[in-house]
Amino acid sequence: MDISFLNISPDLWDRDDSYLKSQEIFQNLRVVNDTAERGVKLMQDFNGLLTVDEEKKQFLPHCVEDHRKQYPGCKKATLKRKFD
């Protein structure tokens, strides 16, 4: 992507080819919620691997949530903390 338009006054950008091309590229970018998509993918990948019992499948996300509340970070000090 040509960013030469950054060297000229913003007043002239709407007539600059490199700006117009860059604007087109950015307007066509798709916004992605990467965190949510990773969570969904994780659940899809492990669905059925740990258990086939539906009740246990429903319980598993609650266990993960409780663990994240008790251990909010992945630092060594956090993980060494005593279980409440």
Automatic annotation (TrEMBL):
Domain of life of the native organism: Eukaryota
Protein name in UniProt: Uncharacterized protein
Organism: Araneus ventricosus
